[in-house]
Write a sequence for this structure.
């Protein structure tokens, strides 16, 4: 079974631009979560989508948004990029129970490394 | 305020010896704890977990210990192997407002020296 895939793997943008990252979950998985990883803050939860609806949200500004399609693929968008948005963005999928619960193991993709200049 | 802390950014251990990775948390509502391992250029991989109703969980060479009164958990790897060299993240889960949310520590980089 193929794992979680994320595209692109690397991205360079300039301040003020916007970016869209894509995530394809494991086949059969309906929940997709996004995380931001930076050296100073570790992994921080952005949001979770299930059945095309945002089910949970972390403490990030409204510049960070996402969506999920009917095939469970998900995209996240960051508008008006800032230097501090440079990070590794990780996507994780799980079957469909509440992500983070004992019954739901999350499987992570390799991430998209975003550099904002 | 960091709710999950991994105070050692790095750890070096000789092959064959025990590796002990530590994690402290502050939120009493956390009821489920996990360890993830991450190799460079890969996403984190689930390693082992423990429920708050237990104090120990074993899986092969990996054992996680939970001390709720001290709000402390640790991951023991015995014996350590060079392939265990990776960044280890501790994570904790709490239920609230109809959903769970994982809170991660900043990670500990383990180097196992042959």
């Amino acid at each position: 079974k193929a794992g979680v895939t994320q595209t692109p793997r690397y991205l360079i943008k300039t301040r003020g631009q916007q970016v869209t990252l894509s995530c394809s979950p494991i086949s059969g998985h309906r929940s997709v979560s996004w995380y931001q990883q930076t050296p100073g803050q570790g992994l921080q939860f952005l949001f979770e989508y299930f059945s095309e609806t945002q089910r949970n949200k972390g403490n990030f500004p409204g510049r960070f948004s996402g969506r999920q399609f009917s095939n469970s693929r998900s995209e996240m968008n960051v508008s008006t990029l800032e230097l501090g948005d440079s990070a590794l963005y990780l996507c994780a999928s799980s079957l469909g129970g509440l992500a983070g619960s004992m019954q739901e193991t999350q499987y992570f993709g390799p991430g998209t490394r975003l550099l904002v200049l | 305020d960091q709710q999950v802390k991994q105070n050692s950014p790095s750890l070096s251990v000789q092959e064959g010896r025990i590796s002990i990775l530590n994690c402290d948390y502050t939120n009493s509502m956390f009821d489920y704890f996990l360890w993830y391992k991450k190799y460079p250029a890969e996403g984190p991989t689930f390693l082992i977990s423990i429920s708050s109703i237990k104090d120990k969980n074993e899986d092969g060479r990996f054992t996680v210990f939970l001390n709720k009164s001290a709000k402390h958990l640790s991951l023991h790897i015995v014996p350590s192997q060079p392939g265990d060299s990776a960044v280890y993240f501790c994570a904790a889960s709490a239920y609230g407002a109809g959903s769970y949310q994982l809170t991660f520590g900043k990670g500990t980089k383990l180097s196992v020296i042959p």
In short: Chain B has no helices and eleven strands. Chain B touches chain A at residues 32, 36, 41-46, 49, 51, 89, 91, 93, 95, 99-107 (CB under 8 Å). The longest strand of chain B covers residues 86-96.
